[in-house]
From TrEMBL:
GO molecular function, one term: manganese ion transmembrane transporter activity
Name under which the protein is recorded: Putative manganese efflux pump MntP
GO cellular component: plasma membrane
Membrane topology: Multi-pass membrane protein
Localization per Swiss-Prot or TrEMBL: Cell membrane
InterPro entries, alphabetized: Mntp/YtaF, Put_MntP
Source lineage: Bacteria, Bacillati, Bacillota, Bacilli, Bacillales
Organism: Priestia filamentosa
A Pfam family hit: Mntp
């Protein structure tokens, strides 16, 4: 592969990764509105980056199998997970003093990362069919989504200080809106 070919493929993958990472960015803004420590922000971004590495890798591996059927399934599962997380966040904002059902740690972090990385699985299916360079693809997807997540969580953390108690409702509303967007594309 020549340098211009590599640069062209890298640019194409970067743009795709940026588009996929914008889901994580937008949702990270909402998630950043709950009180998170810097250590949590680091692990959330790292986990989402890892999921955006693994999911397209799995997708590329299965690229020639069931691409159309899995693509819509992944979108619906991701939308349902985001709806659930958004409703849970809004509900928990009115129940101060009670533990929220899903937090961005442990299993809750896995659910969050899975919900924002399912679309990269679908893209991986398509890229597998077209013969994209696997290692380059998954590294670019993982790195871009990780950095975008860190940026959004830090921005959300700043906004949280300005909004106070309403920040969790706003964050849940953002997650809910993205879940609806995935389930009802318009």
């Amino acid at each position: 592969m020549t340098l211009p070919d590599f640069a062209s493929e890298f640019l194409t993958l970067f743009v795709m990764a940026f588009a996929l990472g914008m889901d994580a960015f937008s949702i990270g803004l909402g998630m950043g509105l709950i009180q998170l420590r810097m250590k949590q922000i680091f692990y959330i971004g790292l986990t989402i980056g890892i999921f955006h590495f693994i999911m397209p890798l799995l997708g590329i591996g299965m690229g020639r199998l069931l691409s159309e059927k899995f693509g819509m399934f992944a979108t619906y599962v991701g939308g349902a997970l985001l709806l659930f997380l958004g409703i849970q966040m809004i509900y928990s904002s009115f129940k101060k003093g009670e533990d929220i059902l899903i937090k961005p740690v442990g299993f809750g972090l896995i659910v969050f990362a899975l919900s924002v990385s399912l679309d990269s699985f679908s893209v991986g299916l398509s890229l597998g069919i077209f013969g994209a360079k696997t290692l380059l693809t998954v590294i670019v997807f993982g790195a871009v989504s990780m950095v975008l997540t860190w940026i959004s969580l830090l921005l959300g953390r700043r906004v949280q200080g300005l909004l106070g108690s309403y920040s969790e409702v706003l964050g849940g509303s953002i997650l809910l809106a993205f879940g609806i967007k995935l389930l009802l594309p318009f």
